[in-house]
Design brief:
Blueprint (H helix, E strand, L loop, with lengths): L3 H5 L4 H6 L1 H18 L7 H25 L6 H21 L4 H10 L13 H40 L8 H19 L16 H32 L7 H19 L7 H13 L1 H18 L3 H23 L4 H17 L4 H17 L3 E2 L2 E5 L6 H15 L2 H11 L6 H7 L7 H8 L20 E8 L4 E5 L2 E8 L2 E6 L2 E6 H10 L14 E6 L2 E15 L2 E14 L1
Antiparallel strand pairs: 1-2, 3-10, 4-5, 5-6, 6-7, 8-9, 9-10
Helix pairs in contact: 3-4, 3-8, 4-5, 4-6, 6-14, 7-8, 9-10, 9-11, 10-12, 10-13, 12-13, 13-14, 15-16, 16-17
C-alpha cells in the first residue's frame, strides 16, 4: 500500500515541482504560525491571522487543482485561471464571509478526494482506491510525525537534564510547528499516486476492513434502522413532536450508512445484510429524511436559523439529492456524492446564501419582531420591558447573545439602534433588560428549592463535642478523625450516611427537599434557614446537620441530590 521509497525521498525536486504552490503555501503557513506563536506582527494582528487561514485553505485547494490538471491538458493561461479561481474563493471566504470559514476549510480538503477524477470516466472502485491510499498515507504521516515530535522532545529533555542545555527550549515550539505544517503534509504528498490507471479495475479491501463493514457496521445500521422506524411509528400514533436531537441522530445514521454503502460493491462474499442494504436501503432512507425535515422545520419555525441548523439543512439537501440521483442512475455514485457536497459547502461559505448570512438575518428578524412590540410610541430610544415575561426575556437574551458573537451581527444591532455597541452587555443596558437564560426558566417552573448557600450564618454549637465542615459529592466516601474514633461519611442515592464505629445514622436529602416543596418553600435564605437544621439521635450520639448548600439535579418529576455542603455537630 505504501511506497516506502517515496517517503524516504519525500523532500525531493520531483515532489516540489509536482506541487510547487502547495509547498509555497505550506512555508508561508509555517512562518505565519511561528509569528503568531511568538506574537510577532508584521501586519495588523487580525490581517495576519486571516493570511494564515488563507494559506492553510489554499494548501487544500491548490493540491486539488494540481491533481485535476494532471489529468487535463490545458495551456498556461487556463491553468493560471484555475489557481486564480482558488484565490478568489479563499478571498471571499476569509475576508468577506469569515463567519462561514469552517465550511470553506471542509470544501478545500474535500476537493482533494475527487479532483483526480473530475475529468475522466471512472468507477467507484477507482475513487475508493485513491482515497483509501491517501487515508493510509495520512495515518502513516501522522504517526511518523508524532513519533518524530516525541523523539525530539525526549532528546531536548535529556540534553537539559544531563548537560543543563536550555538553548533548544527557545525553539522547541518552532520545531513542533515545523513538524506539523511542513513534515506531516510533505509525507502525505509523497504517497499521492501519480498514475491512477491501476486503481480503475478493482478494489481489494483488507480483511479487517471487510469484516468491520460486513459483520459489524451493516448489522448495526439495520438494527438502528429498526429503532428509528419504531420511533417514527410511535410519534405518528401518539401524535407528538419529534425530540430535539432526533435530527442529529438521523444525520449521523444516514452519513454512516452512505459510507458503508460506498464500500459494499467491493466486498467479495456478500451476506444477507449487505445485499439488503445495497438493494433496498435507498427506500429506507426516505422516511428518516422526511422526519429530519419535519424536525428541522419545527426548530427553525420556533427559534430561527442558526449555524448548526443551517448545517442540518445542508445535510438534508445532500441526502435528498443522493436519493434522487440513485433513483435516476440506478446505482450509487461516489464521485457525484463528493462533488455535490463540495458544491453545497461552497454555497454555505462564499455566497449570499452562506450560513452566516442566512442565520444572522434569521435571528435579526426574530429580534425585530420581539423588540418592536415593546417600543414606546415607535421611539427606538425607549423600551418598556418591565412586564416582559421570563420566557420572552430568555428568548431575547438568546437572540442578542447570538448576534453579538459576530461582527456582522453586532453591526445589525448598531444599525437598528443607531448606536456603537461593543458588547452585548451594552445592548442589555440600553434596552433596560436583565439577561435571562434557560436555567432561569427551569427554576421558575420547578416546584423544588433551587441552589442556595448559607455560608454567612453563625451556628450555635454550644454543648457539642465536635464541629466539622462537611462536603460530600455523590459516591465519594470521606473519613474524619474524632479523638479515639473515626467518622465515615458517604452520599449515595441522595442519602447522606454517617458512621462512627458501629453507630450509623442517615439523612434522606431527597425527602428533605420534597418536604420543603410540600411546605411551598422555593427559596432558602437567612429568613428561613432553620428549615435546613436537622437533629438525629442514635443510642448515645446526637448529630446536628446544618445544611449550607445542596446541588439538586431535577429530571421531570424525579430529583437527585448530587452534592451537600454543611456543618455537622456531634455530641457524644
Amino acid at each position: 500500500m505504501f511506497n516506502i521509497k517515496s517517503f524516504t525521498n519525500s523532500i525531493s525536486k520531483e515532489l516540489f515541482f509536482r506541487f510547487p504552490l502547495v509547498f509555497i503555501f505550506m512555508i508561508l503557513c509555517f512562518f505565519l504560525a511561528v509569528f503568531e506563536n511568538n506574537q510577532i506582527y508584521l501586519l495588523e494582528q487580525k490581517l495576519q491571522g486571516k493570511l494564515f487561514l488563507s494559506s492553510f485553505i489554499l494548501i487544500g485547494f491548490t493540491l486539488a487543482t494540481y491533481l485535476y490538471l494532471e489529468r487535463k491538458s490545458l495551456d498556461k493561461i487556463k491553468k493560471i485561471s484555475f489557481f486564480l479561481v482558488s484565490l478568489l474563493i479563499v478571498y471571499l471566504g476569509v475576508f468577506t464571509y469569515e463567519d462561514s470559514l469552517l465550511y470553506l476549510i471542509f470544501a478545500a480538503y474535500l476537493s482533494i478526494t475527487f479532483s483526480n477524477f473530475s475529468n475522466i470516466k471512472n468507477s467507484n472502485y477507482s475513487i475508493l482506491s485513491f482515497n483509501m491510499q491517501v487515508t493510509n498515507s495520512v495515518v502513516f504521516a501522522f504517526f511518523s510525525s508524532f513519533i518524530l515530535g516525541i523523539g525530539i522532545k525526549v532528546i531536548l529533555l535529556t540534553l537539559k537534564y544531563l548537560f543543563s542545555l536550555t538553548f533548544f527550549d527557545l525553539i522547541s515550539d518552532e520545531m513542533m510547528i515545523f513538524i506539523s505544517i511542513i513534515i506531516f503534509p510533505t509525507l502525505v504528498l509523497a504517497n499521492i499516486p501519480k498514475n491512477i490507471e491501476p486503481l480503475k479495475n478493482s478494489l481489494k479491501l483488507k480483511k479487517a476492513v471487510e469484516l468491520l463493514i460486513k459483520n459489524i457496521l451493516t448489522p448495526l445500521i439495520l438494527i438502528y434502522t429498526i429503532i428509528l422506524y419504531a420511533y417514527f411509528i410511535k410519534i405518528i400514533i401518539i401524535q407528538e413532536l419529534p425530540k430535539g436531537d432526533l435530527s442529529w441522530m438521523i444525520c449521523i445514521f444516514l452519513s454512516l450508512s452512505i459510507l458503508v454503502k460506498a464500500f459494499l460493491k467491493s466486498i467479495k462474499e456478500q451476506s444477507i445484510f449487505t445485499n439488503f442494504i445495497d438493494k433496498y436501503f435507498i427506500y429506507l432512507m426516505i422516511a428518516p429524511i422526511i422526519f429530519l425535515d419535519i424536525a428541522i422545520y419545527i426548530r427553525v419555525s420556533e427559534y430561527g436559523v442558526t449555524q448548526l441548523r443551517y448545517c442540518l439543512i445542508i445535510l438534508s439537501i445532500w441526502f435528498s439529492f443522493l436519493i434522487v440521483l440513485e433513483f435516476i442512475k440506478k446505482q450509487f455514485c461516489i464521485k457525484s456524492s463528493l462533488v455535490s457536497m463540495f458544491l453545497l459547502l461552497l454555497v454555505a461559505s462564499i455566497t449570499p446564501l452562506s450560513s452566516s448570512n442566512i442565520s444572522l438575518n434569521s435571528q435579526f428578524n426574530r429580534f425585530k419582531i420581539v423588540i418592536e412590540k415593546y417600543e414606546v410610541f415607535n421611539d427606538k430610544t425607549k423600551y418598556n420591558l418591565k412586564d416582559l415575561s421570563l420566557k420572552k426575556r430568555v428568548e431575547l437574551t438568546s437572540i442578542i447573545s447570538y448576534l453579538s458573537r459576530s461582527k456582522k451581527g453586532m453591526q445589525f444591532l448598531n444599525e437598528f439602534f443607531n448606536k456603537n455597541f461593543k458588547t452585548k452587555f451594552e445592548v442589555f443596558k440600553y434596552i433596560n433588560m436583565k439577561e435571562a437564560y434557560s436555567y432561569n426558566l427551569k427554576r421558575e417552573k420547578s416546584k423544588y428549592v433551587q441552589e442556595f448557600n448559607l455560608y454567612n450564618l453563625a451556628y450555635d454549637s454550644k454543648g457539642y463535642d465536635y464541629v466539622l465542615n462537611l462536603a460530600s459529592s455523590n459516591n465519594n466516601e470521606k473519613e474524619y478523625k474524632l479523638d479515639d474514633a473515626k467518622l465515615k461519611i458517604v452520599l449515595k442515592d441522595s442519602i447522606l450516611n454517617l458512621k462512627i464505629d458501629n453507630n450509623t445514622i442517615s439523612f434522606d436529602l431527597k425527602e428533605i427537599v420534597k418536604n420543603w416543596a410540600k411546605k411551598n418553600i422555593k427559596k432558602i435564605d437567612n429568613s428561613n434557614y432553620k428549615e435546613t437544621i436537622f437533629i438525629r439521635k442514635n443510642k448515645n450520639i446526637e448529630y446536628k446537620l446544618n445544611i449550607q448548600s445542596l446541588s439538586i439535579n431535577e429530571k421531570e418529576d424525579n430529583i437527585k441530590v448530587d452534592y451537600i455542603n454543611s456543618i455537622l455537630m456531634i455530641r457524644r
